[in-house]
Amino acid sequence: MSILQKLLDRKLAWFGLSLIAIMLLVSLFAPQIAPHDPLAVDLMKKLQPPGATFPLGTDHLGRCILSRLLYGGQASLSISLIVVMFTTSISLLVGLVAGYVGGKVDSCLMRLCDVFLAFPSLILSLAIVGTLGGGIGNLIFALIATHWAGYARIVRSRVLSVKESNFVQAAIVSGTGALPIMIRHILPYTLIELTVLTTLDISHVVLHIAGLSFLGLGIQPPTPEWGAMINDGREYFRRQPELMLYPGLMLFLTTLAFNLVGDVLRDVLDPRMEQQMQVKTLKTKLENG
Amino acid sequence: MKLTNHYIFRRSLQLIPVLLGISIVAFLLLQLMPSDPAVVVLRAAETPTTPEAIADMREKLGLNRPLLIQYVDWLWHVLRLDFGQSFVTGKPVLQEVMNYLPTTLMLMSCTIMLIFIVSLPIGILAALYRDTVFDQVSRLFAYVGVSMPSFWLGFLLLYVFSFKLGWFSVISRGSIVDWVLPSITLAFAPAAVYARLLRGSMLESLNQNYVLYARARGLSERLVVLQYALKNALLPVVTVFGLNFAHLLAGTLVVENVFALPGLGRFAVQSILNRDYPMIQCYVCLTAVLFVGVNFIVDLTYGYFDPRIRFGKQEL
Question: How far apart are CA B170 and CA B167, in angstroms?
């Protein structure tokens, strides 16, 4: 409760949270708000400037840009939520087991993490999607494969430090089983880091999806998606820079919102994490486009 | 000296499982392919895909052997830098890849230069004028930097500076000017973040006793800041920079595609669109090995400079 209170004391958090709320609501209610069908092609009305019927004009296939923008978040936001759910559970599992059990299990799991961390995530996911072929399932698989390892590592280091604390040692001495210790005593202490990380990571996954779609390998047309819209607008951007300006702006605002909230959360939960988080954010940002 | 050698040796040993893992992932990547490689090769060579031709090709490519044998054979070739032939051009893959490497390296060097030119003064000034408007602006810069999709930023820069102002030509290649916009795009986020990191560590070192002592000795403020505070503040930032260096390589992927630079990243996307699997495999392998290699060198350098790392913890 007090965490929420502290969070709401910050102006930046309010700004970020309301942006996130707007984005979610817009994506959720896109069918109700959008003035046109985002997939309706009308070649007679292509590349129209903003006007009464098309508030932001039309793209190269005569589709309403505003409607496509409103629908654009649906796919990437829902995919990133799924991906983050999976990566969080996998990294919790791997991190807890590696950190608590230790020994050979730990070093095996950590070497596995090392291998996955050795591939820059955009490059590996590009290769996976490229060989498997497009499609949402493959995209989700590629995203999970490239995102879990970093978090597993962070959870593990947290588990290692919690494991040394007196209450865990006391639980071990009093004969509590490994599973209850992990779940009841250690897990709650890893959740803080994980909350911050997942908030920040949603923005990275959204960027990652947009980057892949921009390269033509993420969400496939005609599904409206911001990164893909920028790619579509490439050829016409001399004549109509709006085609790229608006989707990019939506993308920017979404990532900004999650980054702001993640940053304030980090500040509220654990101010000492600042530098670590900044570095981590930069790393993932660079890797994801 | 002996200890340092021992450290290098120990660290190199740790690399082996990771490199093996990388090779396994890269090898398995091709196994993920939904279509038969023999068919892909035949199609690329524009040979009719009759059952006999496919069977012949499978035999020729060694696809009928057990997976493990195939892997060992592949690894043996890779260790001798033989990544096979491109499905499209028929030339050795590594030779093709090397053609694209200089562009990517050039882009990275320009970017690194830019990062230092921008983040050093911003970081120092933000620390000196803490909580002023300038400090707030640099903070905003960091938020914007990490939230800005680089492909969008690239196009915005192209639009404003190439089309509207006409400062940079869109097509011509060959002079240093061509690298300005791509490296700004790539340097934007890291410059913003390193400026923040430098500010933080500057604030810390400005509070140290040796700075107080330098001031008490009546040294000029300029000397105190640059010689005493900055020198010590730089070390943690440079550490982070080194460890993140390899991540820039991933960033080039998008930037090269925005600016149509003939580098590794653009070539990788083209190979994927062409379904030229050996090229993709080589690219993935190469980036991962570069990544691990750079981190290894960075690690060693810090071990050299900071003995605590050499003797201390292995995992971080």
Answer: 10
Tokens of B293: 């290699």
Helix, strand, coil percent content, chain B, rounded in steps of 5: 80, 0, 20
Q: Which residue has the higher pLDDT, A143 or B55?
A: A143
Global pTM reads 0.85
Q: For B250, which of A123, A217, A241 is closest by C-beta distance? A: A123
What is the distance, to the nearest Å, from the Cα of residue B287 to the centroid of all Cα atoms in its chain?
A: 8
CA atoms within 13 A on the CB side of A251: 32
Residue type, B173: R
The answer to whether the CB atoms of B152 and A111 lie below 8 A apart is no
Look at B189 and A263 and tell me if their CB atoms are within 8 Å. no
CB contact under 8 A, A131 and B17: no
Contact A7, A265 (CB under 8 A): yes
CA distance A284 to chain B (A): 8
ipTM for the complex?
0.84
Q: How many CB atoms lie within 10 A of CB B49?
A: 14
Q: What is d(CA B278, CA B30) in angstroms, rounded to the nearest whole number?
A: 8
Q: Where are the alpha helices (DSSP H) in A102-120?
A: 103-118
Higher pLDDT, B236 or A71: A71
